[in-house]
Amino acid sequence: MDSETTLTIEQAIGQYVDTVKLARSENTTIAYHKALAAFSQVLRNEGLDPRETSLSHLKEDAVAWFAASQKHLSPATERQRLTAVAGFFEFLAAERLAEPNLPRVRLLIRQRSRRPGPRLPQFPRQAIEQTVEFANQLAAYPAENETEHLRNLRDRAFIITLADTGLRVHEACNLRRGDLDPNEGKAIIIGKGNREAVVRFSKRALRAIKDYLNARSSLDGSSGRPLGALPIFARHDKGSAKTIKLMTPTTGRNIVAERTQQALGVENSGITPHSFRHYFVTTVLRGSGGNLKLAQELARHRNIQVTQRYAHLSDDELDRGYHDIFGK
After folding, report:
1. Is 310 a catalytic residue?
2. 260-274 in b/e burial notation, b at 16+ Cβ within 10 A?
3. Can you tell me the mean pLDDT for 42-50?
4. CATH for 143
5. Catalytic-residue membership of 245
6. Is 151 one of the annotated active-site residues of the chain?
7. 3-state DSSP helix/strand/coil percent for the chain, to nearest 5?
8. Annotated catalytic, 168?
9. Of the residues 238, 253, 271, which one is the last residue of a structural domain?
10. What are the residue ranges of helices labelled H in 166-291?
11. 259 catalytic, yes or no?
12. Which residues pair with 48 in a beta bridge?
């Protein structure tokens, strides 16, 4: 392989990350980029500068070095990073850039990685409900100008949508007006794993979205684009005051951080957009008497074991039984 003698490790990593960008989500791409950056640092520590070292000098032992360097991380993060590095070696083999011993790579990872035990999802239910209640009042919140008023309406609709649909932050940000059928109260989305799915919307979420889009009608009408192609949640900052631009997941996280701080009066509450997804699943379980299959389908969990992690949070019968015994 001629490319093997000329391609550096860093160049090969760059090619691999580019392929990840094409096939995986933005969050996965960021995580893999961090993992390969950490892998490159480990190689430098072992005397292999990725910028100068030929790919032919990269051996499977590097996986063992990397695994040993990641023990300060949580088992879940460690395993994610090792998966990214394993994918890099598989990429080298698939593209015929090198001939790694893939069975040995997988064996090294299996022997050296910790398996994370099941974790129960944690979130402050009362704080989330307080945040949702605060968001619901944003329509009447004082605003200095029309742009700020639009932000208030958008943030109200965004937070209620997260709480009442179980959408992941990137799924909510990627929603287009044409995806949502207000009459049916449903939207068709492309969710995790590039899978098409139907998501249901509550009446209050639909009402908040309608109020926001009605207030935004002049901007939408002057955009020169079909209404169905416009994002439901748009940016309203200084750089996009008179245009309709797709809101990014980073903006979505900032909205949640800002509004939770306002609602709770504390910084760093620990509430993230994904906290609302946890809230959604447990709300379904509480309201359905613990119907795991219903919660699984509405949350779009591929494995019901993921849904079962939430069951303990909705078991009111256990709560009552405990307090009946120990509360006397």
Report:
1. yes
2. beebbeeeebebbbe
3. 95
4. 1.10.443.10
5. no
6. no
7. 65, 5, 30
8. yes
9. 271
10. 169-173, 203-215, 217-221, 249-264, 273-287
11. no
12. none
Last residue of a domain, one of 57, 89, 112: 112
The answer, yes or no, to whether residue 240 has pLDDT greater than 50, is: yes
Q: Both tokens of residue 220?
A: 């939408």
The active-site residue, picked from 177, 277, 278, 300, is 277
Q: One of 81, 151, 236, 301 is an active-site residue; which one?
A: 301
pLDDT for the residue numbered 201: 94
Q: Got the DSSP string for 104-145?
A: HHHHHHHHHPPPPPP------HHHHHHHHHHHHTGGGS--SS
For 98, the domain range is 2-112
Judge if 264 and 146 occupy the same domain: yes
Compute the distance between CA of residue 171 and CA of residue 165 in angstroms, rounded to an integer. Answer: 11
Greater model confidence, 321 or 290: 290
Q: Domain of 41: which CATH number? A: 1.10.150.130
Residue 41: CA count within 13 A, CB half-sphere = 10
Catalytic residue, candidates 168, 235, 278, 300: 168
Q: Beta strands of the chain (E only): which ranges?
A: 180-181, 186-190, 196-200
Please pick, among 59, 274, 286, 309, the residue that the annotation labels catalytic: 274
Same domain for 129 and 108: no
**Which one is predicted more confidently, 95 or 116?**
95
161 and 92 fall within a common domain:
no
Active site residue 141: no
With tokens 């379980």, the residue in question is 285
100 token code pair: 């790694």
Name which of 270, 242, 259 is nearest 161 in CA terms. Answer: 259
Q: 302 in a domain, yes or no? A: no
Contacts made by residues 189-193, CB under 8 angstroms, sequence distance 24+: 191/300, 192/25, 192/168, 192/300, 193/302
What's the CA gap between 228 and 197, in Å, rounded?
Answer: 18
Task: Please give the tally of structural domains in the chain.
Answer: 2
Given 104, 170, 176, 192, the catalytic residue: 192
pTM of the model: 0.65
